[in-house]
């Protein structure tokens, strides 16, 4: 079968590899769609926790084609999506409901072969049936939305909060839609690219502001005392650094975008103390697949409009190597 393999950082190929044999607790999925995410570019560049060689791809939808010998209650032909996180269930963090911090953490498409392939093996407990009303493309968004649900549940945005999001990429725009649907008084999003801001407006986010030299003043006019919640969805360290200055006293700041592990920013501990700020991180997802599935299925957010490119397996090495795809595209989706 055909698959995309990152042999080691900077080396990616389309190859014929062996069709996976299911272990007794695994199923085989024929992949239909798989989202390409910033993490895949990080794995290609070698600056994330990947193991090599690896078939990347962790935002998968597809159809069950084979069942391991221990599995009952699932039929061949079932349409599914996949939670990529594999937790040991036995360590301290697993036993305290924090599987995303499992001390033996593995993830499909990161440390085990994932969805940039015609078929993939998936542990049965990682599989979620999707309703007939949900397309395979929508199902490929359940994983990123699930990460956002995890982050937003931690943030606990309260009635009447004014929220600022840096970055109108796919993550920023999914987040903005979910927050707008919730109880915020306003959602403001900023980006360097006018096309992204146009898309934000078509998705109902009216305060979509160009990040140019007038940004500071425009944001000051919207929230003279600062925002209750500020989220960095760019993963650009400089943006994460200035995000703090836009928070209101007692405000919350979340670093959601993935910066490079080598990045450092300057924070004044005195400012965090004196202005009574709260700073949050958010890693992956943790038992938030069902709520994400429901949010997409009930059209609380529009994910389809975020798809800018549909590519095939043969295109993927070019996509992973391309600066243009990385910087200019919205959501790139593998279609098989
Ligand atoms: Zn991802
Ligand atoms: Zn564990």
Question: Concise description?
Answer:
The chain has 336 residues and is an alpha/beta fold.
Name of the CATH architecture of the largest domain = Alpha-Beta Complex
Main sheet attributes: strand count, strand direction, barrel closure: 7 strands, mixed
**Structural domain tally:** 2
CATH level-1 class of the largest domain:
Alpha Beta
- SSE series: EEEHEEEEEEHHEHEHEHEHEHEHEHHE
Annotated CATH topology of the largest domain? Quinone Oxidoreductase, Chain A, domain 1
**Small molecules in complex:** zinc ion
Average pLDDT works out at 96
Radius of gyration: 20 Å
| Percent range of helical residues | 25-40%
C-alpha end-to-end distance: 12 Å
Low-pLDDT residue spans: none
| Coarse morphology | globular
Structural account:
This protein is α/β, with parallel strands linked by helices and about 325 residues long. A hairpin with a 2-residue loop joins strand 1 (about 1-10) and strand 2. It has 2 domains: about 1-140 and about 305-335, Quinone Oxidoreductase, Chain A, domain 1, CATH 3.90.180; about 150-280, Rossmann fold, CATH 3.40.50. Strands 3, 4, 5, 8, 9, 16 and 17 form a 7-stranded mixed sheet that branches. A 6-stranded parallel sheet has the order 12-11-10-13-14-15, with helices on both faces. Strands 1-2 form a two-stranded antiparallel ribbon. The chain is built from 11 helices and 17 strands. About 25% of the residues lie in helices and about 25% in strands. The mean pLDDT is about 95. Bound molecules: zinc ion (2 copies). One zinc ion (ZN) binds near residues 90 and 94.
